[in-house]
Every structure is written in C-alpha cells, then in structure tokens.
C-alpha cells in the first residue's frame, strides 16, 4: 500500500479481499431507523461519519455515503436486499465509493451534477442524481444560500418521509461523540461543531454564501415536507423525533 492513498484508491492491483480490508475502519452494526431505512456509524478521525441504506420499492437497496463494512455487516447488508444504487453525495464523501463499485459491479454510481467531476476522479459516475433519482420517487432538493456542492434527498417511507443531508447540517451531540469519538470531542468543539443540530461554524465559513437564504430554505423545507420521520446527516446522530421542529430550530439558530 506504500505510495498510495487507500482512502481514494480501490486497490486495483490487490485482490478484492485485500483492497476491501484496507478500507475497513471501526464502525457500528447496521441499525434500523424506521422500516426500510438503516444507518451505520463509521469512525474516520476526528469526525464520525454516517452511511444510510434505503430499501427501494422494488426491494433493492440504495446506499448513501458508502462505508466499507466488515464481513458480518456485509452479510447483514446483503440480507436486506441487493445493493443497486450508490449515491456519492459530494467530493468529500467518496472515500469508499470505488471499492464498493469493485465489490458490487452492478451498482449504479449516482452523484449530483456539481460533484460529478470530483467523484469521477475515483470512480465512473453512471447517472446524475437530479436527473435519475426522481424515477424512484426520490426528490432532490438544491439548497439555497449554500455554495453548490451537494443535494438533500427526500425519500418516501411507508410511514412518511426521510431527508438525507450530508455536510450542510451536523448533529454532533455530546452523547453521540462520547459513544463514537470521545477522543475527538474537544477538537470538534474547538473547530465549531456545537452540541446541537445545525450548520457548524466551519460550514458557515466554507459552504454558506447567504445566511438569510439558507435559513429561509430550511424553514420552507420544514413546512413543506409532510410527515417527516427521519433526518439523517453525514456527521452526527440521526433525528427520529419532532423532525420538522428540529429543522425549524436549526434554521432559527441562523437568525
């Protein structure tokens, strides 16, 4: 592995088992959030990261922000359905994309149009998210007031809706960090990741272009997405209670 970056290299010169093993880092078991929606918490210091698994209406699986899993978790994943679609949500969350495509050649690699050039530095993109995912009943929301980098995905559930965010909202609560990255807690607090749901100080600096526009967009999302049951973020605890109100609170913190 010397001379390579294992985080963006699929190890094409190694066996699949060797290449996959090089990507596997500590992670949680696959845990159900609601019927048809699961998540995995991975540890990539200093920040924990979240992978989401969604069962499509045809029974196949969509993976958002893939994390390389150990063998037991891979068996669990495959017991849920056939991995068919992989969303690489932005340029940051492409670490394990290529190795997933190598393991599951049938995966359709999907990325937002703005992220496609960066994702294709590590793996070929088969489809543009905002053009292709609506055929599966998934709504792709483009954030206002944020530098173009990612989308927010509205997924239909049997009991309502889920929203998948990536890096424009965090939820790194004290309890979550104590459980999954206790050594990183104070560094993340120093970097501006507060003990609350919202955009971080670093996110405001590097991603936000118009605070008022972003605040209004979050409020509109909270008002218009009916029966919101889950909010997932790439870094932090998923929200499964009072989701619309939590989204309004995140917006109001930008006042």
Q: CATH homologous superfamily - what is it?
A: Ribonuclease Z/Hydroxyacylglutathione hydrolase-like
Coarse morphology? globular
Largest sheet geometry? 7 strands, mixed
Structural class by helix and strand composition: alpha/beta
Strand order of the largest sheet: 1-2-3-4-5-6-7
How many separate domains?
A: 1
The CATH architecture assignment turns out to be 4-Layer Sandwich
Total of DSSP H or I helical runs spanning 4+ residues: 10
Number of strands: 11
Mean pLDDT: 91
CA-atom Rg in angstroms: 17 Å
Order of helices and strands: HEEEEHEHEHEHEEEHHHHEH
Unreliable runs: 1-7
CATH class: Alpha Beta
The N- and C-terminal alpha carbons lie at a distance of 48 Å
The CATH topology annotation reads as Metallo-beta-lactamase, Chain A
What is the gist of this entry?
The chain has 255 residues and is α/β, with parallel strands linked by helices.
Molecular structure report:
The structure is a single chain. The N terminus is likely disordered. The strands form two sheets. Strands 1-2-3-4-5-6-7 form a seven-stranded mixed beta sheet. It has a four-stranded mixed beta sheet with strand order 8-9-10-11, with no helix packed on it. It has a single domain, classed as Ribonuclease Z/Hydroxyacylglutathione hydrolase-like (Metallo-beta-lactamase, Chain A). Helix 1 packs antiparallel against helix 3 and helix 9 runs antiparallel to helix 10. 30% of the residues lie in helices and 22% in strands. The radius of gyration is 17 Å and the shape is globular. It is built from ten helices and eleven strands. A hairpin with a 2-residue loop joins strand 2 and strand 3. It starts with 15 loop residues before the first helix and ends with a helix. With 255 residues, the protein is an alpha/beta fold.
């Amino acid at each position: 592995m010397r001379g390579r970056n294992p985080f963006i290299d699929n190890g094409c010169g190694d066996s699949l088992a060797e290449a996959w093993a090089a990507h596997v880092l500590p992670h949680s078991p696959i845990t159900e959030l609601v019927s048809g929606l699961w998540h995995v918490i991975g540890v990539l210091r200093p920040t924990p990261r979240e992978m989401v698994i969604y069962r499509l209406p045809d029974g196949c699986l969509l993976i958002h922000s893939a994390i390389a899993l150990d063998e037991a978790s891979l068996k669990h994943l495959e017991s849920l359905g056939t991995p068919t679609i992989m969303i690489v949500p932005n340029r940051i969350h492409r670490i394990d994309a290529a190795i997933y495509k190598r393991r599951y050649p049938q995966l359709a690699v999907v990325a937002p149009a703005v992220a496609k050039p960066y994702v294709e530095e590590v793996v070929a993109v088969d489809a543009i998210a905002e053009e292709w995912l609506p055929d599966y009943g998934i709504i792709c929301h483009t954030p206002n007031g944020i530098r173009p980098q990612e989308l927010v995905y509205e997924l239909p559930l049997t009991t309502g809706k889920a929203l998948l965010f990536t890096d424009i909202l965090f939820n790194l609560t004290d309890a979550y960090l104590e459980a999954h990255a206790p050594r990183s807690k104070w560094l993340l607090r120093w970097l501006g990741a507060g003990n609350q749901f919202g955009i971080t100080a670093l996110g405001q600096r590097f991603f936000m272009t118009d605070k008022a526009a972003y605040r209004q967009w979050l409020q509109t999302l909270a008002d218009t997405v009916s029966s919101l049951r889950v909010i997932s973020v790439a870094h932090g605890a998923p929200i499964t209670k009072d989701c619309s109100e939590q989204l309004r609170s995140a917006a109001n913190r930008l006042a």
